[in-house]
């Protein structure tokens, strides 16, 4: 665990030296400033965990420094040092956000007690936030439902890489659950108690991307009214998910590569180096190797990220998982909307298995939610409860339910759609349709399908 960083601010050189030696002896990382102005410059470049500041100083006193600190996006704690005659001012400062104050003369024991109290309370606050995050994400791993070998391969890789700090590069189509995989890697890792931050690189304006990732100091550019931490600093000690990393501009990719290699960064507008300890997980739904060939993504950055590659298969490649996923989402939304558990009828389930699900698991989840919302008091879900595109693409059009087609036409449509959905695998299609391969062959012969006599 990294030592806490404390900035000591006092115009008395003897007090600065005493505090520095005392705090270093207590295993803190210490920086010193001779007045509020110097301290404020240091704070903008790299905010510490706690500021221990004298109240009465030339140029900028402790109260003015506190007001400036409060403008930071993530302000550190402040403990003020005051003489007996200014205790009332120190108490007023606490109302403005200071954590506590020390009255001169003070002992080493008093300093230790104040600092321990601050970091204990701060740790409890952090643990509380993390606990809330874990409660909110309890469904993450459970949503990775399925028994297919393709999904099992993904879960096996998650188990193998979770205990390492190696970068993970997750590739797959939109809606396949790449974010769920990333979250599972973090939650099973040694960094599970640290922050887990994620950002969609495609959604960040190009002119703000560097600042968003690495932070900036006050005045670094027009509109930079205060010093802010970037995502890398915010994720220190934890994991940062860079979703759709292929959208990062080529010009910024070299800086990102340096940060990944050296675990150090410079805020925009600052030459001071900030050390970080972050595990990177990246995702993309693009053909990243083609982007490398086209010169749109740096090859060295690709290899730096692709230490552990994970491919999340689309739902059409693991159709055997569809019934389990449908049942899982139906149960989840029944609970969410306080409805009694509902069943999906067998005919509907077969048609859902045939459908290609171009939107993958995300599309299925949305359809399941709609089905529950539109099912009313029905105990059984049918195709009528799902989106019209599902009915059409599964080979069952809305007209069927209005009696506009004969049973034979519906049967033929269902058989051909099922064959298309299984890649013309007759054994699998017969199983889904709940008929024998021989019956299926006879039906195809009846429809005049070429090669119908073949097995």
Which properties best describe this structure?
Rossmann fold, 14% strand, alpha/beta, five-stranded parallel β-sheet, single chain, 455 residues, Helicase, Ruva Protein, domain 3
How do the helices and strands line up, and which of them pair or pack?
Blueprint: E1 5-9, H1 13-25, E2 29-33, H2 36-45, E3 50-54, H3 62-69, E4 77-82, H4 87-95, E5 100-103, H5 108-136, H6 139-142, H7 149-161, E6 168-171, H8 178-187, E7 196-200, H9 209-214, E8 215-216, E9 228-229, H10 231-234, E10 239-243, H11 250-262, E11 264-266, E12 273-275, E13 279-284, H12 288-293, H13 299-305, E14 308-311, H14 322-336, E15 343-344, H15 346-354, H16 360-374, E16 380-381, H17 388-393, H18 407-421, H19 426-433, H20 437-446
Parallel strand pairs: 1-2, 1-3, 3-4, 4-5, 6-13, 6-14, 7-10, 10-13, 15-16
Antiparallel strand pairs: 8-9, 11-12
Helix pairs in contact: 2-3, 14-16, 18-19, 19-20
Structural overview:
The longest helix has 29 residues, at 108-136. The protein folds into three domains: 5-132, Response regulator (Rossmann fold, 3-Layer(aba) Sandwich), CATH 3.40.50.2300; 137-313, Rossmann fold, CATH 3.40.50.300; 317-446, Helicase, Ruva Protein, domain 3. It contains 20 helices and 16 strands. The chain has helices at 13-25, 36-45, 62-69, 87-95, 108-136, 139-142, 149-161, 178-187, 209-214, 231-234, 250-262, 288-293, 299-305, 322-336, 346-354, 360-374, 388-393, 407-421, 426-433, 437-446; strands at 5-9, 29-33, 50-54, 77-82, 100-103, 168-171, 196-200, 215-216, 228-229, 239-243, 264-266, 273-275, 279-284, 308-311, 343-344, 380-381. The chain has 455 residues and is of the alpha/beta class. Helix 3 links the parallel strand 3 (50-54) and strand 4.
